[in-house]
Design goal:
- With about 425 residues, this protein is mainly α.
- Helix content is about 75%, strand content about 0%.
- Helix 4 crosses helix 13 and helix 9 packs parallel to helix 17.
- The radius of gyration is 22 Å and the shape is globular.
Length: about 425
């Protein structure tokens, strides 16, 4: 039986995370090459170390704790999405849907509006479906195609989609982070949305202006090939269904079926070619799936050994006054997110503590819910091992390359931090 209670606060419980960061980030920075140390191997070494330093349980029990974390329902849900996203992306690619969608995008958008248009699309979709992962899985293949056709930096174009995906994750009424943040703080979603909008909308407007400015230099291809509009249908249906609020897994499954039907009808591939394409897409997600499972297990060991409890204890000792309370809430959710690699779990972990801090220092519950959600999204932009970054990078990019251009989550973190110090907006602060 796996122990349900975490142990007493323990700094050493955090050392597996420190080891991972040293192996992956530290060595990559020193070597100036983010492909020298594979992220899966860094997680494997850190996971073995995490199991080894756990005390008080037999080896079999330690492994059970690790497996409990790797098999967490949120982790398995991510794995399902990765499998379906890989299958859809590859079958769409081999059928010609991605090329057709890219050419249609280049044909419809005027010069100079390609980058802001891509950002707005990501913002709108994520706001509608409430999931950054679903938005990224849907739009990144199109972004890759646009980068190839326009000679734009691939990492930058992918980062535009990721940034827009965080916009909806932070604000959407159906986002799990919004639901948990408001429930834990005891406020209405509409009130949290209003408080959040003072941070998210200024950041989005700044990014739109920036993308419009640098987008003026984007050179569209001189000649755009003829568009096979029938092959755009899978992406149109996927976007329409996600905007209608359909579950992302059902959406991706529908996309797979549509690519198969259209691919067979247009002789893009036969039945076995379609099955082979789906298998190739799933296999292409194998490293991502392995990393996700290893991260979930390692982070559960950290929680079990008292790592998160240690962070909470140390941070709450420094709280003095309303401003200090807000800074503490921000720090708690950021550090928790770094230890769990999941902004939803980070809010679940720190929500009750944030509520206690808010009540003790008179912080508006709408404000505390906004800070929890905003800083959790900000933190996801800081870690290269979060689900969003891993699925965006896939097998063709390093997550660190994307992070260089990930301006939106960084900007909402900066604006949120400034808002704490200058007490903005006055109505909530």
């Amino acid at each position: 039986m796996i122990e349900k209670q975490t142990k007493t606060p323990n700094f050493w419980a955090l050392t597996p995370l420190i080891l991972f960061l040293a192996l992956y980030l530290g060595s990559s920075i020193l070597l100036q090459d983010f492909y020298k140390v594979p992220i899966a191997i860094a997680f494997l070494i850190a996971s073995i170390y995490a199991i080894a330093i756990t005390r008080g349980e037999k080896l079999e029990e330690r492994i059970q704790i690790f497996c409990h974390g790797a098999g967490n329902h949120n982790i398995i849900l991510m794995v399902w999405i990765f499998v379906l996203a890989g299958s859809f992306a590859q079958s769409a690619k081999e059928m010609g849907a991605i090329d057709a969608t890219v050419y249609a995008t280049l044909h419809l958008l005027p010069d100079g509006f390609l980058l802001p248009g891509l950002f707005v699309a990501a913002c709108f979709i994520s706001l509608s479906i409430g999931t950054s992962v679903g938005t990224i899985a849907t739009l990144v293949p199109v972004a890759i195609g646009i980068a190839e056709q326009t000679d734009l930096a691939l990492a930058m174009v992918v980062a535009i989609v990721v940034g827009g995906a965080y916009f909806g994750d932070n604000l959407s009424f159906i986002s799990d982070t919004t639901i948990i943040a408001t429930k834990s703080q005891g406020c209405k979603m509409s009130d949290k949305f209003k408080a959040n909008s003072f941070i998210a909308f200024p950041a989005a407007i700044i990014m739109l202006i920036y993308y419009a400015f640098i987008g003026q230099e984007v050179q569209m291809p001189a000649e755009i090939p003829d568009i096979e509009w029938v092959k755009v249908i899978p992406y149109i249906c996927v976007l329409a269904t996600v905007l209608a609020g359909m579950d992302v897994m059902i959406v991706l499954a529908l996309g797979i079926v549509l690519t198969g039907i259209i691919g067979l009808a247009t002789n893009s591939y036969d039945l076995f070619g379609w099955l082979s394409a789906m298998n190739k897409g799933v296999m292409g997600m194998s490293e991502l799936i392995i990393v996700t499972l290893l991260a979930g297990g390692m982070l559960e060991i950290i929680r079990h050994n008292g790592g998160l409890t240690y962070l909470v204890q140390k941070l709450t000792k420094m709280v003095k006054g309303k401003r200090g309370g807000e800074l503490c809430i921000a720090a708690l959710v950021v550090l928790s997110d770094m230890c769990t690699a999941n902004n939803t779990i980070a809010i679940v972990t720190t929500g009750s503590i944030a509520k206690e801090i808010s009540e003790k220092y008179g912080i508006d519950n709408r404000r505390s819910a906004s800070l929890l959600d905003t800083f959790s999204c900000f933190a996801q932009g800081l870690i290269p091992y979060g689900a969003q970054m891993l699925i965006a990078a896939g097998s063709i990019l390093s997550p660190i390359e994307i992070m260089r251009y990930l301006y939106y989550p960084m900007l909402i973190g900066i604006i949120a931090l400034i808002s704490i110090f200058i007490r903005y907006p006055k109505k909530y602060a």
